[in-house]
Amino acid sequence: MGIRVLSDKCVGCKVCVSACPFGAITVVERKAVIGDACTLCGSCVPSCKFQAIELTRSEKVNTDLASYQGVWVFAEQREGRLAEVVLELLGEGRKLADTLGQELVAVLLGHDVAGLAGELIAYGADRVFLAEHPDLRHFLEDSYTQVLTDLIREHKPNIVLIGATAAGRSLAPRVAARVRTGLTADCTGLAIDPATLNLQQTRPAFGGNLMATILCPNHRPQMATVRPKVFKALARDDARQGEVVRVDLAKAVFDLKARILEVIKLQEGPSVNLQEANIIVSGGRGLCDPKNFKLVEDLAAVLGGAVGASRAAVDAGWVSYPHQVGQTGKTVGPKVYFACGIHGAIQHLAGMQSSDIIIAINKNPEAPIFKVATFGLVGDALEILPALTEEFKKAIG
Ligand SMILES: Cc1cc2nc3c(=O)[nH]c(=O)nc-3n(C[C@H](O)[C@H](O)[C@H](O)COP(=O)(O)OP(=O)(O)OC[C@H]3O[C@@H](n4cnc5c(N)ncnc54)[C@H](O)[C@@H]3O)c2cc1C
Question: Which residues contact 122 (CB under 8 A, 6 or more apart)?
Answer without folding.
Answer: 236, 237, 238, 240
